[in-house]
Amino acid sequence: MCLVSIILYRAIMAILMSRLDNTLLAAWASRIASFTGSVVNLIFILILSKIYVALAHILTRWEMHRTQTKFEDAFTLKVFIFQFVNFYSSPIYIAFFKGRFVGYPGNYHTLFGVRNEECAAGGCLIELAQELLVIMVGKQIINNVQEILVP
Q: What's a BP term from Gene Ontology annotated to this protein (predicted)?
């Protein structure tokens, strides 16, 4: 649900910014929308990360393992799967699915009334690198600030 909302956010922001009177903002509309979408995605990742750890703990407790080792193994597997999907769903979308379902002139496909995103002329590699940079570096910066402020 969060990934779909970020996709819609990027598309709507790109459309709104391209219609502005400022030609500089209109030219960079898709890049700005992509960057701000990456930052919003990072915020969603951080929030969902806490929720997924709590959910994994609840689900593992329901399983009622016989030993602490089996409990920890099951908990670690659940946290790994949740975190993998949480962190890499957006880069996987950009790398493999973005721009594949756009349609053609005169018959563009839409998602909730908004035209599907498409890659730039050179492809989605720059946007993918930007997404990974924001997620990986942003997470490290937030963790370092948190470690300094909350010992």
A: calcium activated phospholipid scrambling
CA neighbours closer than 13 Å in the CB half-sphere of residue 107: 2
| Residue 79 predicted with pLDDT over 90 | yes
pLDDT in tens, 54-70: 999 999 999 999 999 99
Alpha helices in 64-151 (DSSP H): 68-92, 125-149
The enclosing H or E element of 110 equals strand 110-111
Distance CA(98)–CA(126), nearest Å, equals 13
* Segment 113-140, tens digit of pLDDT: 666 677 777 778 888 999 999 999 999 9
Which structural domain range is residue 18 located in? 2-149
HSE-CB for 131 with a 13 A CA cutoff: 23
